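User: Quick sanity check before I run a bigger batch. Here is a single chain. Can you write out its predicted 3D structure?
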Amino acid sequence: MAVRLGRLEMTLLAYAQLRNLRVVRTGQLAKPLHLSREQERELLRRLARGGLIARVRRGLYLLPRQLPLGGKWSPDEVLALNTLMQDQNGRYQICGPNAFNRYGFDEQVPNRVYAYNNRLSGDRIVGSATFTLIKVADNRLGSTDKFETNEGQTAVYSSRVRTLVDAVYDWSRFNSLPRAYEWISRELTAKRVDQNELANVVRRFGNTSTIRRVGALLERAGVKEGILRKLEHRLVPTSSPIPWIPNRPKRGKMDRRWGVVFNEYE
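Assistant: Done. Predicted structure follows.
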């Protein structure tokens, strides 16, 4: 249904278009549009409720390039995420189900964007885009690829190899085991992922459980002993085995080198 624009709404959107403003903060438009601060706040709130601009957070809004004639407008997911992270002076990388789909590991298209970042946690909505923001330490960000969108925005994704590692590391959040084992095996066989690079990324971004599971997988795949020793050197001896598939009973053949119980079959 078309949204009716009053004089003030038209004036604000026309001014923003003339000045090429995409991001507006409260207090920025009051003086040039001869509004009080309260009038400006109410005008921005009204435009956001009408779906003509998008609220990023309290006091911060995204505006369209052109007047949204006869309909609503919402920023694309990357523009919204970039704006949110720039406002926080933060870094991010899109991860999990979005990266699984981008690299062809999973055909399912997520209905939200998952992003590791060093500023915010929790769910956010900007326009029609929904985000699950996962706050991590600065040293857990890295191993990324960048892609340009049709809007001219740069989207930062976890790299192909980092995505595979996260599918093992963050399996409970992304529900990605045991599927991740198949993805890793397939990528190694097709030589889309280098064995050394995978081991290095596991050592840098994986925890003990990730190193043990990936080490056991690589040994099964016949990876060179030197690469396996790289991973093994990061481990300390343990008498507490972990399951190959975490949410199944810990019954099966024990791999003593990696401390993993192969419980594929119940």
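The first strand starts at residue 23 and ends at 25.

User: Great, the batch can go ahead then.
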